[in-house]
Structures are given as structure tokens and as C-alpha cells.
TrEMBL record:
It comes from the Eukaryota. PANTHER family: OS02G0117200 PROTEIN (PTHR31775), REMORIN 1.4 (PTHR31775:SF5). Belongs to the remorin family. Residues 30-72 form the Remorin N-terminal domain. Residues 17-38 have a biased composition (Low complexity). Residues 1-10 have a biased composition (Basic and acidic residues). Residues 1-44 are annotated as: Disordered. Keywords: Coiled coil. Residues 111-142 form a coiled coil. The lineage of its organism: Eukaryota, Viridiplantae, Streptophyta, Embryophyta, Tracheophyta. Signal peptide: none annotated. Residues 76-181 form the Remorin C-terminal domain. This is Remorin C-terminal domain-containing protein.
């Protein structure tokens, strides 16, 4: 009898189209034969649910399969679109970075050129400044030389005039006459 019970349980599991006429039978046999160790029947709630799901799958199998395939196709398409979008964004970012990099290098080159030109002009100005400083020093030296020459001429003239005045004074002393003009007052 114990052999029949597992067969009935497997029949109900294997033969899902039969709702559950065999459920009361195992319970009656288990009660009728208390000396044998009864096999616990499957819970009544599980068998009907499994049977209903299998029945629904058979009835709506092609509809569900089409819906699932359509959903999978849609998900596949959406993932491809997302991948394409990411790739395009990546391309745009790389392109922008490349352009920004080229602009930055252009800017650096132009700055370096301007700084080199500025340095060149500063060097030219320093050269010109040095030339002008030397020129001005030469002018100052020339002015100093001319001033010294003029001082020397004045000193020489003064010395000549002093000698001349001494000679005239000696002449007037020797002759005993007085000069006609005294101190420029007469």
C-alpha cells in the first residue's frame, strides 16, 4: 500500500491536468492503515497552484513567450541605444578635450612668442639705455672738458691782466705819474 501512495503523488505531479481528485485518497489510506508509516502527502495548497500555473502557461504560453521575446527585444534595443549614446558622449567629450588641448597649446605658444618678443625688446631697450647712458656720460665729460678749458682761459687771461696791471703800476711808479683813470671812476 505504501507503494501506491507515492505513485498517486507522482501521478498528480506528473499529470498536472487532473486538478486533485487523488488528494483525499492518500489521506483515507493513511487513516485506514495506521500500522504502516504513512508518507506525508504534499500540502494541498502547493498542488493546485502548480497545476494552475502549468495550465496558465499552456493556455497563454505562446502569448507570454511573444511578450517575453518582445520585452527582451526591447531591452536589447534599449541597451544598444544606451551603449550608442554613451559612445557618442565619449566621442564628443574626447573631441572637446582634443580641441581644448589644442587651444591651450596654441595659447601657450602665442604667450611664449609674445614673452620672447618682450624679452627681445627689453634687451634692445637695455642696449639703447646703455648706449644713451654712455652717450650722456660722454657729453658730461665733454662739457666738463669745455668748462675746464674756459676756466683755464679765464685764469690765463686773469694772470695776463694781473701782470699787465703790475707792469703799468711799475711804469707809473718809475715815471712818478699817476694813472689817468683811478679805479674806473674818472
Amino acid at each position: 500500500m505504501a507503494e501506491e501512495e507515492p505513485k498517486k503523488v507522482t501521478e498528480t505531479v506528473n499529470n498536472v491536468s487532473e486538478p486533485s481528485p487523488s488528494l483525499p485518497a492518500p489521506a483515507e489510506k493513511a487513516v485506514a492503515a495506521p500500522q504502516e508509516k504513512p508518507v506525508a502527502p504534499p500540502p494541498p495548497a502547493l498542488v493546485p497552484i502548480v497545476a494552475k500555473e502549468v495550465e496558465e502557461e499552456k493556455k497563454e504560453g505562446s502569448i507570454n513567450r511573444d511578450a517575453v521575446l518582445a520585452r527582451v527585444e526591447t531591452e536589447k534595443r534599449m541597451s544598444l541605444i544606451k551603449a550608442w549614446e554613451e559612445a557618442e558622449k565619449c566621442k564628443v567629450e574626447n573631441k572637446a578635450e582634443k580641441k581644448l588641448s589644442s587651444i591651450e597649446s596654441w595659447e601657450n605658444n602665442k604667450k611664449a612668442a609674445v614673452e620672447a618678443e618682450l624679452k627681445k625688446i627689453e634687451e634692445q631697450l637695455e642696449k639703447k639705455k646703455a648706449e644713451y647712458v654712455e652717450l650722456m656720460k660722454n657729453k658730461i665729460a665733454q662739457i666738463h672738458k669745455q668748462a675746464e678749458e674756459k676756466r683755464a682761459m679765464i685764469e690765463a687771461r686773469r694772470g695776463e691782466e694781473v701782470l699787465k696791471a703790475e707792469e703799468l703800476a711799475a711804469k707809473y711808479r718809475a715815471s712818478g705819474t699817476a694813472p689817468k683813470k683811478l679805479f674806473g671812476f674818472m
